[in-house]
Specification:
Blueprint lengths: L10 H7 L9 H59 L1 H11 L12 H10 L4 E5 L2 E8 L7 E9 L2 E12 L12 E3 L3 E4 L4 E2 L9 E7 L5 E3 L7 E8 L13 E4 L2 E9 L2 E6 L7 E3 L4 E5 L7 E4 L3 E5 L11 E4 L2 E9 L4 E9 L7 E4 L6 E2 L4 E3 L3 E2 L4 E2 L2 E2 L3 H4 L15 H6 L3 H4 L18 E9 L2 E3 L6 E9 L2 E5 L5 E7 L3 E6 L2 E7 L29 E4 L8 E3 L1 H9 L5 E4 L5 E2 L1
Parallel strand pairs: 5-23, 5-33, 6-24, 6-34, 7-25, 7-35, 23-26, 27-29, 28-30, 29-31, 30-32, 31-33, 32-34, 33-35
Antiparallel strand pairs: 1-2, 2-3, 3-4, 4-36, 4-37, 8-10, 8-15, 9-14, 10-13, 11-12, 11-15, 12-13, 16-21, 17-20, 18-19, 18-22, 19-20
Length: 579
């Protein structure tokens, strides 16, 4: 029998012969492991939930914040739009409520406009609680319009919108020049000088101010009632604006129309008659503004007085002669507030004309304008066209040297410009709105005030157009080749000579200081003064460049008068934009 070797056992036997390790897991330990796993799972779950909640909260807060910002931005946009949309109405209401001397007028820059808006609380606008808009104008564009910039704010949001506006000088005031040369003291016309007034009988009573500027013209359809239509117009005078305003009467061709309104260069016009036939107004047709037209039909009877409703009563003065229809009359009174004049019809302009006639709406009233008007004597009447008005008690009563005179019926300056010196002139002793220029070389552009004596010698000509007011003496020796257009008002002694021509009017007070009882300044109680001697006389001598030295020109006065009218703003359609 073989006996196996005891030192070596088969591998299988070895494996089973090695001791086996067995781990016995107790119940408590198993539960602890399961608890740890659960904690880990819950911890991760909590972290994930926290991340989800945080993300959701962040998104919600972001959405809410975005909604708040969006609403604020929208409210800021609404505030800016409201500031723009209400500007015209608020500007007009403020202008109407202010005294004449505080209204915005004249040739103004955007900076001057913005300063005026700020003073009169129009530079800001409250649209609602926490919603504000600030408004200011930017410089003019190539078309002459101004951009109004409105910045709206609501909380921290800001929005900016813009709108272009026309700055219009409507002819709301006719400068009262009763003659091309009006002088409180004596007048001496000599040396071949000529001063030209205007004969009312030969006058059309109109001023050419514009032309139709619409290629293809305008066709007005036939209508049973007086139709209204719009037409683009362009100025033919020196002003960029056509010098038309609501209420004006105009002539185009052979027909008369009434202006309903003007926005920039577009006029709304109404015919005066019903059963209007189809009519075409061709391009470049002249538009003539009637100085003052009858606004309501009335019956005119020879040797009787009539109360006439007129479009512009400031065109007339008591005592002046007028022509209407086929009759000549004399103005007995003027009522500016009622816009009426009372006229006594003195004679027919034609022996065959009727003694009673009906005057239609829109009929021009023509005024007789003497060449010279003086409170005292006029020498050289043969050189004056259409006669003179000398020793004019009405003019003498417009005493420019009465410190208490501040009405249009008692003061020459106020009668001329519709404002007192204190309202208009910002030079001692006055406190007005028109500031004097720092230097003057004879060039006038718009409104010009000079404080002191001016002697324009051979090297300095009077040039340009507008309104020139001199607080002192003025001597003119020459004008530019085209002459000066507008009005010259001299608060002192006026002398004109040399080769010079003025179209419009010159008005002279004769003295620079009040010394009652002298030749220059009459004594208010006795009326003495402006007697022998000529130190204060208004003197005009020499030739006038082939024409009159001073020629009455209603167009030039209309242009100058528009500078005294309060400015108006009109929005340009289609120019709203957002920045």
């Amino acid at each position: 029998m073989l006996v196996p070797h005891l030192g070596v056992l088969p591998a299988r036997r070895r494996a089973y012969s090695e001791p086996m390790t067995v781990r016995i897991v107790r119940l408590g330990e198993q539960r602890r492991e399961e608890g740890i796993a659960l904690v880990v799972v819950l911890l991760f779950t909590a972290i994930i939930l926290a991340i989800v909640v945080s993300t959701t909260a962040t998104l919600a807060l972001g959405a809410r914040g975005g909604g708040v910002n969006e609403r604020a931005a929208y409210q800021a946009l609404l505030a800016a739009e409201s500031g723009l949309n209400t500007f015209e109405v608020r500007f007009k209401a403020k202008t109407d409520s202010l005294p004449r001397n505080q209204r915005l007028r004249g040739s103004v820059t955007p900076e001057q406009i913005n300063a005026w808006l700020e003073v009169h609380e129009l530079g800001s606008y409250t649209a609602g609680t926490g919603q504000q808009a600030t408004l200011s104008f930017e410089s003019k564009g190539s078309d002459g319009t101004l951009s109004l910039v409105a910045q709206g704010t609501s909380d921290t949001a800001r929005k900016i919108v813009l709108q272009n506006y026309h700055l219009d000088y409507v002819p709301a005031y006719n400068i009262r020049a009763d003659a091309p040369l009006v002088s409180y003291p004596n007048v001496d016309v000599k040396g071949g000088a000529r001063i030209e007034g205007e004969n009312g009988l030969n006058s059309s009573g109109t001023v050419l101010v514009a032309q139709v500027d619409q290629p293809g013209g305008v066709t007005i359809a036939a209508s049973l009632t007086a139709p209204t239509f719009t037409v683009r117009v362009s100025s033919v005078l020196g002003n960029a604006d056509p010098l038309l305003a609501a209420g004006d009467y105009i002539k185009m061709g052979s027909l008369t129309y009434k202006v309903q309104g003007v926005q920039g260069n577009e006029a709304t016009i109404k015919t005066l008659t019903d059963n209007f036939p189809a009519t075409t107004i061709v391009n470049r047709t002249n538009i003539e503004r009637i100085d003052s037209a009858v606004t309501a039909p009335f019956t005119q009877t020879l040797h009787q007085s009539s109360t006439v409703n007129v479009s512009d009563p400031t065109f007339f003065i008591t005592g002046s002669e007028v022509f209407l229809g086929g009759m000549k009359g004399q103005v007995e009174s003027v009522d500016n507030s009622a816009k009426t004049i009372s006229v006594k019809w003195t004679e027919k302009t034609s022996a065959l004309g009727p003694s009673t006639t009906t005057i239609a709406e829109g009929t021009p009233i023509r005024r007789d304008v003497h060449g010279v008007a003086s409170g005292y004597r006029v020498d050289g009447q043969s050189q004056v066209t259409n006669g003179v008005s000398q020793n004019d008690l009405r003019l003498r009563n417009l005493n420019p040297f009465n410190p208490a005179a501040d009405t249009e019926t008692t003061d020459l300056f106020t009668h001329t410009f519709g404002q007192t010196k204190n309202e208009m002139l910002n030079v001692s002793p006055y406190q007005g709105w028109l500031t004097p220029v720092s230097s003057f070389d004879g060039n006038v552009s718009g409104l010009t005030l000079v404080n002191g004596n001016i002697n324009l010698n051979g090297r300095q000509d009077l040039c340009g157009s507008g309104v020139l007011i001199v607080k002192g003496n003025l001597t003119v020796n020459g004008t530019c080749n085209e002459g000066f257009r507008g009005i010259v008002y001299v608060m002192g002694d006026y002398n004109q000579q040399g080769n010079s021509a003025i179209k419009g009017a010159v008005i002279a007070e004769g003295a620079t200081e009040v010394v009652y009882g002298t030749e220059c300044v009459p004594n208010p109680s006795s009326g003495t003064g402006s007697g022998p001697g000529n130190s204060c006389d208004t003197q005009v001598a020499g030739t006038g460049q082939g024409n009159g030295k001073i020629v009455y020109d209603r167009g030039a006065l209309l242009e100058a008068g528009s500078l005294l009218s309060p400015l108006t703003f009109t929005a340009v359609p289609g120019t709203w934009r957002q920045r």
